[in-house]
C-alpha cells in the first residue's frame, strides 16, 4: 500500500466558519521512543486551537473495549467498539477506509476452554488518532449537539485502485498550511509511521 504524507484532504473540510473540536485519542501506555512525538502533536493541536480553525481539543485515552458487568452504564461513556462503529459509519459515508490503522480482528476461542467459548472480535486502534467534530449550536435543526466531520488516519482508494493514507501528521500539516504557517516540528515525518502503529 502506498502511504503518503501529501496533503489535500477531500473527506475532511476545516471550514473557518464552523466550530471544530478535535478529540485526540492516545494509548494509555506508549513506547518511550514516541512520547515526545505525541507531546509535539498535542502542542500542534494547542497552537491550532489558539490561532486557527480549531475551537477546542481534548486528549483522551482510548476507551475500554467493552463495558464490564460491574460498570455503571453512564450516558456519556462509550466503549472502543462503539467509538469504532461511529468512525466506521463516517468512513462508509465518505467512501474511505480506516484500515490499516484501525481494524477489527477475530479472536478465536481458547483450545483449552478458558473464557468464553464463543468467538469474538477485538478492535485494534493506532497509538494516536484524531476525531474531528463540528460542534453545533442551538440554532441547528438536526437535533444533534455535534457531528463527526472526520477521522485521521484514514485511507482513500481511487477508482484505479491506488491508495493514499492520510496520517495525523499530514492532517495537521494541511491545516497549518491553510493557516499560512510553515510549521517546523522536529522529526514529525520521521515519526509518522510509528504513530499509526497498532499494539
UniProtKB/TrEMBL annotation:
InterPro entries reported in the protein's UniProt record: HTH_63
This protein's name: Uncharacterized protein
Amino acid at each position: 500500500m502506498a502511504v503518503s504524507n501529501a496533503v489535500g484532504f477531500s473527506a475532511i473540510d476545516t471550514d473557518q466558519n464552523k466550530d471544530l473540536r478535535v478529540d485526540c485519542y492516545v494509548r494509555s501506555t506508549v513506547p518511550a521512543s514516541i512520547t515526545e512525538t505525541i507531546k509535539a502533536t498535542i502542542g500542534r493541536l494547542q497552537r491550532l486551537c489558539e490561532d486557527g480553525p480549531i475551537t477546542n481539543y481534548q486528549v483522551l485515552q482510548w476507551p475500554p473495549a467493552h463495558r464490564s458487568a460491574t460498570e455503571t452504564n453512564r450516558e456519556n461513556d462509550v466503549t472502543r467498539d462503539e467509538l469504532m462503529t461511529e468512525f466506521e459509519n463516517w468512513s462508509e459515508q465518505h467512501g474511505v477506509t480506516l484500515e490499516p490503522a484501525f481494524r477489527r480482528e477475530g479472536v478465536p476461542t481458547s483450545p483449552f476452554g478458558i473464557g468464553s467459548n464463543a468467538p469474538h472480535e477485538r478492535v485494534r486502534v493506532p497509538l494516536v488518532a484524531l476525531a474531528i467534530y463540528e460542534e453545533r449550536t442551538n440554532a441547528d435543526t438536526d437535533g444533534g449537539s455535534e457531528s463527526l466531520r472526520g477521522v485521521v488516519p484514514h485511507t482513500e482508494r481511487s477508482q484505479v485502485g491506488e491508495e493514499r493514507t492520510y496520517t495525523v501528521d499530514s492532517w495537521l500539516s494541511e491545516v497549518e498550511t491553510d493557516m499560512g504557517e510553515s510549521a517546523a516540528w522536529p522529526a514529525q515525518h520521521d515519526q509518522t509511521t510509528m504513530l499509526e502503529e497498532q499494539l
